[in-house]
Amino acid sequence: MIRLRYFASLRETLGRGDEQLELPEEVNDVSSLTRWLQSRGKVWECALSDSRLHVAINQEVVKPDTPVSDGDEVAWFPPVTGG
Amino acid sequence: MIRLRYFASLRETLGRGDEQLELPEEVNDVSSLTRWLQSRGKVWECALSDSRLHVAINQEVVKPDTPVSDGDEVAWFPPVTGG
Amino acid sequence: MIRVQTEDFDTGSELEQLRERCAGQAGAVVCFVGLVREFNEAETVLTMTLEHYPGMTEKALGKIEQEARRRWELTDAIIIHRVGPLVPNDRIVFVAAASAHRKFAFQACEYMIDTLKTRAPFWKNETTPEGSRWVEGN
Amino acid sequence: MIRVQTEDFDTGSELEQLRERCAGQAGAVVCFVGLVREFNEAETVLTMTLEHYPGMTEKALGKIEQEARRRWELTDAIIIHRVGPLVPNDRIVFVAAASAHRKFAFQACEYMIDTLKTRAPFWKNETTPEGSRWVEGN
């Protein structure tokens, strides 16, 4: 199982903030996981194609080629605006 | 009459912080006033020869060639160390 | 010391506790307080809600504090950030750095707030008379 | 707003009053607090006394505040400086700048304390176990 999280405007667009799923066989890194999610439909394809999105694995920001493993928490979010 | 003021270490060296005197005839600017005070004796000559001293007339820092007039308040003090 | 909380913080009490912890070792304390503004990009802000990523937020702020302590000689460092609903003039964030040296305290405080604004997972949602909108980041 | 006083000041209350005066206009407040250190140039400081030039001090601080307001867009600026006897960890000086912009608040606050340290007529006298001495300026 992996846990997926979406924040802020992305959470609103996707209509969910949190989900769990079995790691799909064709997924081995952030890029392939994002592509797999985009295949869910138009909204997913569009929302996750924003090049400004950040991805974190286990709460550390990572790059597209970072491996994804069973048990990971993977989060997508727009540029931060705190402070 | 002019009012003369001395602060901090200079006040301690000269043994006074404040005095009033008639403007001497040969005094027309800060330099000549300082020289006149230095003629009072060894301690005055030495203490007022420190090139790091600042002079203020009527509470504004001035240069050696600034004129001194009757009614002025003239102050000598070492570099400031507040804050 | 870092904290993420919905409730307000007491700036004076935080500065006083910092001073007690420093006990004669710090000559300089610099603090930054971020407040909610009534206007953003010419629109009136009625309320603001801060979303964050619980867990990652605390890690990110802890790293920023540690990095500031590593780069400058600090006797103390604090980051407090609020989340949840806020209104104009509410305090959002408090950052403080104490050091024996004034320049270090200024540099460390500015480093922490600058870095927080680009690295810590917080997102602002503003309600204006036209509805609600997410503040755009870079 | 500038003040010169022998009594202590309340940092939290000063920041709170500044926030009320800014009422939604300031997004950023930066403050500096100077404290008496226990050590100066490797010597233990038992007490410190701040002498000043009454009248000129207020003029000098007022000019520094006005110059900061002229150079940056500030919604508020404060300088409070104590005089008289102090002990280690006592507050000496409080400088604050509020602005719509974070960089302006940092720059204005640092400008005010830097300028105060070279232009305002204050002199520190420290008592150490070896006796009393005037802190040397530049």
Which short descriptors sum up this protein?
heterotetramer; A: 83 residues; alpha+beta; Ubiquitin-like (UB roll); 3 helices; 25% strand; globular; C: 138 residues; Aldehyde Oxidoreductase, domain 3; four-stranded antiparallel sheet; 10 strands; 33% helix
Classify the fold: give the CATH topology of chain A: Ubiquitin-like (UB roll)
The string of secondary-structure elements of chain C, in order, is EHEEEEHEEEHEE
Radius of gyration of chain C: 16 Å
Task: Please tell me what the overall shape of chain C is.
Answer: elongated
CATH architecture of chain C: Alpha-Beta Complex
In terms of quaternary structure, the protein is heterotetramer
> What is the count of DSSP helices of chain A, taking H or I runs of 4+ residues?
3
- Note the gap between the termini of chain C: 28 Å
What's the average pLDDT of chain C?
Answer: 96
User: How many DSSP-defined strands of chain A?
Assistant: 5
- Residue stretches of chain C low in confidence (pLDDT < 50, at least 5 long) are none
| Class inferred from helices and paired strands of chain A | alpha+beta
Biggest sheet overview of chain A: 5 strands, mixed
CATH superfamily of chain C: Molybdopterin biosynthesis MoaE subunit
Helix percent band of chain A: 25-40%
Q: Name the CATH class of chain A.
A: Alpha Beta
The CATH architecture of chain A can be named as Roll
Structural shape of chain A: globular
Under the CATH scheme, which class of chain C?
A: Alpha Beta
Topology:
The complex is a heterotetramer, with two copies of chain A (about 80 residues) and two copies of chain C (about 140 residues).
Chain A: E1 2-6, H1 8-14, E2 18-21, H2 30-38, H3 42-47, E3 54-57, E4 60-62, E5 73-77
Parallel strand pairs in A: 1-5
Antiparallel strand pairs in A: 1-2, 3-4, 3-5
Chain C: E1 2-5, H1 11-22, E2 28-35, E3 39-40, E4 43-44, E5 47-52, H2 56-71, E6 74-82, E7 84-86, E8 91-99, H3 102-119, E9 122-128, E10 131-134
